[in-house]
Specification:
α4 packs parallel to α5, α7 packs antiparallel against α11 and α8 packs across α11. It is globular and about 55 Å long. The chain contains eleven helices and 15 strands. By secondary structure, the chain is an alpha/beta fold.
């Protein structure tokens, strides 16, 4: 495909209105012809603000009339998987917001349909596309890094939940980014032990197929207004690398700096939507549709992160060490 990709958007809620729609006008090789939401007035409002010509209250009607090449879906976890399956079977390429599904089993169903239809199916894990994340991935894959040794995650958020169910909901909806990032950097986990500090703070210990070990901490006693996020990795080559808040990274080999990334905020020469990964993830979907090649965040590639997540949730329920392979 050499012409512009025609996209439609399903969903017009808070996240998509703040973070997804504003990206559309700056994307290359794309035309966003319409959006749909059960709340038609909300769909119209966000469409007008972002130069989208038509809005619908029923996405089926939108797809019938617009006949797009691809569809971006940002609604809710359970709907993501069901809608992706429906859209691929109807002949559309699809990009869904995270998480791709509510369970590993449901995610694998999406993968199977993708293989059957041959359609592009991508999950919008923006941290894979943030410039700092891309730089961190390059360090991990470099010869200097050596064999993966350790990975640690620290991510804060306020969660007013009161029980295990609230904890699991938080891990699925908010923590999923970090599970995907860990699996993207270090590969599949083989076993997981998770513990919960009442009511919803979580600690995770994971062993990986490559021999590495990792920890993930999710304290939920702080503020949603200021989320702290840090991921550190070490390799056998004496390399230490750290990424903070998805936008800055630095790496050392022994005592010598070898890589770094920091946005230039001072003179407004960078775009927060690009630095956080929203623009590049959507551009990656557009280019995947144009070329027919799998994107960096294809639904098949996110399975290891979903398996790590599911093992964590099962360990929280049972209080036991969980074999990831036993979940499949």
């Amino acid at each position: 495909m050499t012409d512009k990709v025609k996209l439609c958007m399903i969903g017009a809620g808070g996240h998509s209105s703040r973070n997804i729609y504003p990206c559309f006008p700056v994307l290359k090789n794309v035309e966003v012809s319409a959006n749909a939401d059960l709340n038609l007035e909300r769909a119209k409002d966000v469409a007008v603000k972002n130069g989208i010509p038509r809005s619908y209250g029923d996405y089926h009607e939108m797809l019938d009339k617009e006949k797009p090449d691809g569809v971006v879906v940002c609604v809710g976890p359970d709907f993501h998987a069901k809608c992706a399956i429906e859209l691929m079977r109807a002949g559309f390429h699809v990009c869904t917001e995270k998480p791709p599904a509510v369970s590993l089993k449901q995610c694998l169903e999406v993968v199977n349909v993708q293989k059957q239809t041959g359609k592009i199916c991508m999950t919008a894990f923006k941290k894979r596309f943030a410039p700092a994340g891309v730089k961190l991935k390059q360090v991990v894959e470099s010869a200097d890094f050596g064999k993966a040794s350790t990975i640690s995650v620290f991510r804060t958020r306020d969660n007013k939940g009161k029980n295990l169910d609230d904890c699991l909901k938080y891990i699925l909806d908010s923590g999923i980014h970090m599970f995907d990032l860990v699996a993207w950097l270090f590969g599949p986990a083989v076993s997981v032990q998770a513990i919960r500090n009442e009511p919803t703070s979580v600690a995770v210990l994971a062993n990986f197929a490559n021999g590495a070990v990792g920890t993930m901490l999710f304290p939920t006693t702080l503020s949603n207004q200021r989320i702290w996020e840090e991921i550190t990795v070490t390799g056998s080559g004496g390399v230490f690398a750290r990424m903070e808040n998805s936008t800055e990274m630095m790496a050392f080999k022994k005592e010598q700096p070898i890589a770094a990334y920091k946005p230039e905020w001072c003179f407004a020469s960078c775009d927060s939507s690009a630095e956080m990964g929203f623009i590049p993830e959507l551009q990656a979907f557009v280019e995947a549709v144009r070329s027919g090649n799998k994107p960096e965040s294809s639904v098949e590639s996110v399975v290891p992160g979903m398996a790590l997540l599911e093992a964590t949730m099962e360990s929280l329920r049972s209080g036991k060490n969980v074999s990831v392979e036993g979940l499949k």
